[in-house]
Design a protein that fits this description.
Elements: H1 3-9, E1 17-21, H2 26-35, E2 39-43, H3 51-61, E3 67-71, H4 77-85, E4 90-93, H5 99-108, H6 134-141, E5 143-148, H7 151-155, H8 157-161, E6 168-171, H9 173-179, H10 189-205, E7 209-213, H11 216-224, E8 229-234, H12 235-250, E9 259-262, E10 265-268
Parallel strand pairs: 1-2, 1-8, 2-3, 3-4, 4-5, 5-6, 6-7, 7-8
Antiparallel strand pairs: 9-10
């Protein structure tokens, strides 16, 4: 079974927790993988990753239990072909607007006759030609997640979810809030209402649905709203947030008489 589908299947009552890998660093990706996340998005849309970097990121995450999801920059069959040849097994497609675009995404991940993925005999995906039956078994092992990021896509949710080969939906709160005229207000009541209703509809359809929160409190709200899998921030966000918290503790005015727990010990003002 596809690793991401298996993660969803074995999750039980606790939605799997992931994160975004924005650092473009194999070392950081490997460290985050060892931190205990169930899955992680290796992001090509909003990070400086190129294809060789993707290979190194997949190799690094492969040393951990974290299941990698590869987000391509766009719903482009050529890029999808290349990341699959590089060894990606689950692809996240940004900004899918309708069932036709979802079907095109699935087709890009499938060898003929089910799709239009080009064949290669010496790719990393085939373990450099040592998996002779790969072309006959690959289709069933590839996962497809499509992102719902606008009200038009929300309105087409049922049709998108019905596309054969779509394994899960992912609602992007940042772009959705922007499309609703609420830029940067991901937790606005109107945005939360739309997302909650979408999550409930996905549950009725039997379609897993995920999203991302910037902190533990936001993630908890999404889990309570019925999301099947959730992401907590990003590797860079967690790094910067931890650094800022430590610096804030160190720079507090003397005399506060508070003890702050920091990495590696405690500090008393």
């Amino acid at each position: 079974m596809n690793p991401f589908r298996q993660t969803l299947k074995s999750a039980g009552s606790q939605p799997p927790i992931g994160t975004w890998i924005m650092s473009a660093s194999p070392l950081v990706a490997e460290a985050v993988g060892h931190a205990g996340f169930d899955w992680g998005v290796i992001d090509m849309e909003h990070s400086p990753l190129d294809l060789q970097d993707v290979v190194q990121m997949l190799q690094a995450v492969g040393n951990t239990k974290m299941v990698p999801v590869l987000r391509v920059p766009w719903n482009d069959a050529v890029m999808v072909k290349r990341v699959l040849d590089a060894g990606a097994t689950t692809v996240l497609f940004p900004f899918v607007q309708n069932a036709g675009e979802a079907a095109a995404a699935v087709a890009a991940t499938r060898y003929p006759p089910e799709g239009r993925r080009g064949m290669a005999g010496m790719s990393r995906a085939t373990r450099f030609g040592t998996l002779p039956d790969y072309v006959h078994t690959a289709n069933q092992g590839i996962g497809v997640i499509v992102q719902i990021e606008s009200m038009a896509a929300i309105e087409a949710l049922d049709a998108i979810a019905a596309v054969p080969g779509v394994d899960a939906l992912f609602i992007g709160p940042a772009d959705l809030s922007a499309d609703m005229g609420l830029v940067g207000q991901m937790m606005h009541p109107r945005v939360m209402d739309v997302m909650t209703r979408a999550a409930r509809r996905c549950a009725e359809l039997g379609m897993p649905v995920g999203t991302i929160g910037g902190n533990a409190q936001e993630v908890a709200r999404y889990r309570a709203s019925g999301f099947s899998f959730v992401a907590l921030g990003s590797d860079l966000g967690l790094l910067v947030g931890g650094a800022q918290a430590a610096l804030h503790a160190l720079r507090r005015q003397p005399g506060d008489a508070e003890v702050h727990t920091l990495a590696g010990g405690t500090l008393t003002d």
